[in-house]
UniProtKB/TrEMBL annotation:
<feature type="compositionally biased region" description="Polar residues">
    <location>
        <begin position="403"/>
        <end position="415"/>
    </location>
</feature>
<keyword id="KW-0645">Protease</keyword>
<keyword id="KW-0328">Glycosyltransferase</keyword>
<feature type="domain" description="Penicillin-binding protein transpeptidase">
    <location>
        <begin position="350"/>
        <end position="610"/>
    </location>
</feature>
<keyword id="KW-1133">Transmembrane helix</keyword>
<feature type="transmembrane region" description="Helical">
    <location>
        <begin position="31"/>
        <end position="52"/>
    </location>
</feature>
<keyword id="KW-0121">Carboxypeptidase</keyword>
<dbReference type="InterPro" id="IPR050396">
    <property type="entry name" value="Glycosyltr_51/Transpeptidase"/>
</dbReference>
<dbReference type="Pfam" id="PF00912">
    <property type="entry name" value="Transgly"/>
</dbReference>
<dbReference type="InterPro" id="IPR001460">
    <property type="entry name" value="PCN-bd_Tpept"/>
</dbReference>
<feature type="compositionally biased region" description="Acidic residues">
    <location>
        <begin position="678"/>
        <end position="690"/>
    </location>
</feature>
<feature type="region of interest" description="Disordered">
    <location>
        <begin position="661"/>
        <end position="779"/>
    </location>
</feature>
<feature type="domain" description="Glycosyl transferase family 51">
    <location>
        <begin position="75"/>
        <end position="249"/>
    </location>
</feature>
<keyword id="KW-0808">Transferase</keyword>
<dbReference type="InterPro" id="IPR012338">
    <property type="entry name" value="Beta-lactam/transpept-like"/>
</dbReference>
<keyword id="KW-0812">Transmembrane</keyword>
<dbReference type="Pfam" id="PF00905">
    <property type="entry name" value="Transpeptidase"/>
</dbReference>
Amino acid sequence: MSDEPQPQQPARKKPRRTGWRRILPTWRMTLGTLLVGTLLLIGGLLLGYHLVHIPSANALAIKQANVYLYADGSVIARDGEVNRENVGLGRISQDAQHAVLAAEDRDFYTESAVDPQAMVRAAWNTATGKGKQSGSTITQQYVKNYYLQQEQTVTRKVKEFFIAIKLDREQTKDEILEGYLNTSYFGRNAYGIQAAAQAYYGVDAQDLDAARAAYLAALVNAPSQYDVVTHPENRPAAEARWNYVLDGMVQKGWLDATERAGLKFPAPKESTNSTGLSGQRGYIVRIMKDHLIQNKLVGEEELDAGGYRITTTLQKDKQNAFVDAVNDNLIDRLDQKEREVDTYVRAGGTAVEPKTGKVRAMYNGIDYVKQYTPNATRRDYQVGSIFKPFVFAAAVEHGSTTQDGLPITPNTVYDGTNKRPVEGWPGGLYDPANEDDRSYGDITVREATDKSVNAVYAQLAVDVGSDKVQQTAIDLGLPSTTPELTPSPSIALGVATASTLDMAEAYATLANHGVHRDTVLIEKITKDGQETVPLPEGKDRRAVSREAADTTTAVLRGVVQNGTATAALGAGRPAAGKTGTAEEDKAAWFAGYTPELATVVAVMGQNPDTAAQEKLYGAMGLPRVNGGGAPAEIWAQFTREALEGEPVSSFDLELQAGAERTAPPTADTGSRPPTTAPDDDTPSTPEPDENTDRTPDPDNGSDQGRTDGGTSEGSNGDTTGGTTDGTTDGGTTDGTTDGGTTGDTDGRGNGGNGSTDGENPETGSRGGLTGFVPRPRGE
């Protein structure tokens, strides 16, 4: 071998990664990252498990009350005391246990304390806009209810996660389920399944069957919305949730399919509450809580925690005046022992200040602990003819014309023949009946409003456009979601089911010359005596032109002076208003206003056992209840007392061109069938001679500007300088009526045309109802 040094081989270099491979981590980097991440996750879980301890129970048992105040700061009610009775699992029926599991966590007994997959899925659905979801197991919900607060924060969710894991190791599934059933909120201030069973059905938790248990389980998901007594309009949603629970019980083998098929939805009872919420107090608290929650001013869970002082817009003197007026003109006239129909009678009402939109008084029922449903805000009774002013307002607003191309004004003449088919409606034959099948022949819009002639107003709705009528009603203040507020000729007859609060808001817009102001229920909210909760600023907008609103007011002045609402004269102030009656006399309404206050009153029939709507024939010992009777009398007394001491204001009206002129009266050539009440031997009032010449006598100045006992406005229109303060009765207020009766001016009778709203004739004092044939509405 040569001693010469041998050449060295160059070291082999690792090939470098080029191109797109350079940006990818190597398998060593990936594996290292996964290992480090796993170790960190495990370490974090172990650290969290050791750092987070199971705390003491929260202070639900000593939580604060909420205080509700009148506008002057005096206390209405205190609410928030916890209604709970803890019971062992052995005192909760199997059906109740299974129903709650079917509603909230069907795999509770087989799953772990937490479900990461469900949590990730819920977070993803919430983030992607598919709805807010919790992803929590029953164990996690129990931890939130019993140990933690309700705030939606990452910290609280982390604590909930670790406490649930620890709790699952320390307590049995039965213990956790028992705690959950005793801490869940079911609405009606009922905490726990035992309190809920008593609040909704008057039974113990151990006596709950599958149907009732499924309803209570459904409440856990949305307690304030699924109470079908408080919110009858939400019953379809509540029943859907109820069916979901029962189907889940069948799926898990907890309920026989045959038994499930035979179950019917178990309507809960009207709740009884503590005497601290008796009278109007409980209703007010319920309405204010719903308002806060639905408008997202304060959450339901935050209200439940307590500590709020809520100053309402209600005025104590007006609230008391409303109660007195209902008692004097309705409740004191009932005899529930002698007349079963008197047990059906319910009343509701709302008064709104037109210039501010503030709700100043509400009447909801005789006593919250006896009748749970707030009658001022319920939306399940037809409003009847108090809807008709919206049709006329729409006509003026849109410059509408008749089928012959004539402009629609208060003096436009229509055919008031009974069951006359409407013209120009493409939806098929529609021929509504007038009350008692009475025909009026040619009649002005003004007179048709006084007498509430259905045939005229159905045609008006078509001439204006029922879609425009619908939109005008919404612009004035009715919610767009009002049931049965649909564009068709029948909209004019008031088939929509709005609340007295809704209607008062709309009538307040008319009183405010067409400017709509959002209704205001709450003046101020503070938390723990310090923090002020921000409230939205009320918004003003023009709903209809001043001309449309004021001309409607002028026409409604005539209804009070000469038409179906003469009882409202008892207020002793310039007033405008309209009477109305629901189909089959299940509700009677009066909606009216002065320049200072717009108030709507409804008398409704409801079966106290089944909650079904009932006819009010015979209530108060009268053959019929209608808008010109008790509702108008209540309105008159309330308005007189509520505004006592305030200066009397006149309406300052700017009218549609030509509206200040009163058209020559039209001849009433129609007729109606003999009017005899069922089982009533009282002779009917004789009809006037149908062939009598009804043209005003030029030699008798007192008869100028009226016909048939004063059914149209006075000829002078009270006009001054382009404005008018409404109309007069043509120089007399007690002329012979179309039914031969004599009107009076003390608010107890029915002058003018001898009927309460052109639908339900009445005679005598206090709206005495004699001589008629009750019949279903023509709608």
